[in-house]
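Example record

One chain of 169 residues, shown exactly as stored in the release files.
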Amino acid sequence: MFKLSEIKELIKLLDQTSSVHELEIESEGMKLAIRKPDRAEGDGNVLQAAPFAYPFAPAPQPVSPQHTAPPVVTEIPAVPQAVSAPAEGALHKIVSPMVGTFYSAASPDSPSFVKVGDRVSEKSTVCIIEAMKLMNELEAEVRGEIVSVLAENGQLVEYGQPLFLVKPE
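Predicted structure tokens for this chain:
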């Protein structure tokens, strides 16, 4: 099982070397693939994640036989433009501290930790990010009101991806 710090170190090492362009590691049913894009593809590394089942995750979709590579996560959803009242610059973004799966509740039968309009404190749990079968609770780290939820339950999220917008108090 990989630790977040190990993954970050692998990304740094791959970025710093000129001779290695792709790295694949498989351990305990998890597969991590990191590759440098060709110059034509743009800058930055692309992280690939193989789908796996989790007790309360949505069932994986069948993969067609001609598709052998796992999905490539390259795009971060844009922040919705329909944020009312305060300007977006005045809002605090709660971002994902790691690559993983976003869960809005502790289990499928539980209510969401937070929803639009809820008040949160610095220690309020807003979601769970599941990475490598570890459930990581994410705290708001700011006192205020949830203005927007930017991720969907079960969605794969990137490091640094905005998940919530909060109007600070």
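Notes: Residues 87 and 124 are 24 Å apart (CA to CA).
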